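Data card: per-record layout.
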Amino acid sequence: MSDDEREEKELDLTSPEVVTKYKSAAEIANKALQLVLSECRPKTKIVDLCEKGDSFIREQTSNMYKNVKKKIERGVAFPTCISVNNTVCHFSPLASDEIVLEEGDMLKIDLGCHIDGFIAVAHTHVLQEGPVTGRAADVLAATNTAAEVALRLVRPGRKMDKKPYICVL
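The structure for this 169-residue chain is written out next.
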């Protein structure tokens, strides 16, 4: 068996090296998420927060696997995205964007890190302090209901219809 064949066969979770890469990527992604969360304040530019998350991931991964024979790709797998209020997901601003966070904004933050192609993604939601009321509470309740309905539709071996499903909010 050639080295290439052996290497391809070992690229699953039975390989301790693969598990280590996943765990390392997850640890970096979680720390980056915590860093971005700690900086979320009113009047902070979203682009600055996103850059902070991506920079942290690049910095942390650049210190790993430097002294190996084969070059190992590593870094940002999914750019830091901060979606505010009615933006559903994956808002990654341009460097020229001037959008800032405001008091009471609801945020969805997601980002991803990879080491040698083994990806870990982290995300969270940020809500205002205290009880959520009014339209914001309605949105959260509708989101929770939609997630519960989708979860109940998932079954092993179940095939989806060919008709597209449309979600209207």
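Known properties of this structure: The helical segments are 3-9, 16-39, 46-62, 134-153. The radius of gyration is 20 Å.

See the next section for split statistics.
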